[in-house]
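Narrative progress, year one. The postdoctoral researcher (J.K.) led the effort to move from monomer predictions toward full complexes, under supervision of the PI. The following entry was the first complex the group processed end to end, covering 545 residues in total.
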Amino acid sequence: MSAESAPAPTVAPPAGALVLGPSLRGLRPMVLPVATAAAMLLFWQFAAALLRVPAVILPTPAEIGSELWQALPALIGNAMPTTRDTLAAFFAATILGVGLAVAIGYSPLLRDTLYPNLVVLQLVPKVALAPLFVIWLGIGSSSRVAFAGFVSFFPVVIAAGVGFAGTDPAVLRLCRSLTASDWRCFVLVRFPFALPAIFSGMKVAMTMAVIGVVIGEFISSQAGLGFYILNAGSRLNTAEVFAALVVLCVLGVALYGLVALAERAVRRVYSRH
Amino acid sequence: MALLEESFQKRAPVAGRFRRSMLLPLGSAVLVIVAWQVLCAMMRIPPILLPPPSAVWRVLQSNYAILLDEALPTATESVLSFVIASALGVALAVSLSFSAWMREALYPNIVMFQLIPKIALAPLFIVWLGVGEKTSTVVAVFIAFFPVVVSSATGLVSTKPETLQLCRSLAASEWQVFRMVRFPYAMPFIFAGMKVGATMTMIGVIVGEFITAQQGLGYIIMFAAGAGETATVLAAIVLLCVIGLALYVVVELAERAVRHWYGGQMPVGTVI
């Protein structure tokens, strides 16, 4: 943002920008947050060491790092089922969600009937249903996939529904006057127009899928990062909890990044037409 | 959502629109419940797997004293943590909007936090705060806080540059600009964040009660699920839905009141 406003003569540069050279100024948005995060970690390390905070309450980042290094094989082993369940839930939610949104987009009757109910369901705390999925599907991974899929389904339908409803009516009229078939209309106009909304729903769905799988692992699982965290927490091994959290955060951000990358790739394909 | 509502409104005349937009969804919901009841009776589904709605209603009717007793701590925890998360979130967003340095240093980290599954920190809060109401409240605050910050901060910095230039040329002070322009303009964003925050609060409180609490509807759900009393689980879920929807409706009403206060001139925000 500062790189864009810098050339404008009316805007005075922020005080700190004068210290940095013009080539460094572009790096500021990258360097500043990373430096802040590093400073916080350093502060944590020294504060915990100086105040002698017991490791059970808050281990130092160094302790967490060494725990992470030692437990890495076990952590990766536990990350596998979590990743698999999350991806399965995410894909199921995306396919079903976009499918239902397409149906809603084509039938006004279906839309008037279902959409308000979907919005209400989006608002109610679906997390409370987790134990029911265990009753229905057992403690295996199918109950976690179903639960996480259920939780992440709603953001996709609602976002995609908004996307399909927001197609520019002028473009649709043009299509019709060019006697485009419904199918071509969908492939060439409706779907590309709805893509940004669909992807924003998919991004929410990916974070919800991770949350759903972790909650499922809290209450029913014998493996996975959620199980590992709860297990380490009940043994009061806080460093191990944090190490598992680090892995989980990396996993969450990586999965989100995949959706963002997919969005870019799809956008490039469509901008070529 | 606004777009969809708009296309709804173009479609039908006023009376028909009302009938259609109210009756159809309600009718289909009632239909699903009736079908559920009939299916349960016809297929003889064991009540442990899926009790009919009438059984859920019976549980609500006969055990309402116990259920309401447990709903009270859940409701207070939800309201309390929602209020704290909103206040802290808006306060941090305001301070971010005043300092470009702080914004650039903190905002990307906050967005990062928004992406990671924070719910996984819940067991740590047990280590820090013990088992009890405090833990579920703090877990809920921690989860609901981030959507409020991110959305409010986006709103506070996305004031139209023309308006800000006008303010500057009228020699308005920084505080005046904030009070009369930035903050009112950010209102839709703040409320959008608070709505997401309200649903996140419920998730935090329930998960907190799942893993820690000795009381509350989350505890009832876990306990009843363990005992195979599915009808009780569903009854508790009904009450949770009522609490969650009530919280959301209060936020929605507050938004309307604020909009009325500002003279209905607020721009339409986008949900983050």
